[in-house]
Fold:
Amino acid sequence: MYLLSLGAGLLVGVIYSLLNVRSPAPPLVALVGLLGILAGEQIVPVARQLLAGNGLARAWHQAKCAPHMFGMLPGHHSDQAKSASSLEGTEKHS
Structure:
């Protein structure tokens, strides 16, 4: 995983060099590029879900795009804790 990450970073560095963009890039350019990378990573999983017959909203959800692109949003940690504790309670009663 680390070697792939290093390889991707080197490839991006070469592309930056070809485009005459120097690192660190201006903040807006860097953020737009990062957004492009994150969005681009979601294309294949969403496309697979769409080909499987799911609608766009369902494909987005099934591919877990939101947690990947935005991280855990505020409030979701407590929702997960509640879900985990309710599952544990259900297993104890089973």
Observations:
- Residues 49 and 58 are 8 Å apart (CA to CA).
- The mean pLDDT is 74.
- DSSP finds five helices and no strands in the chain.
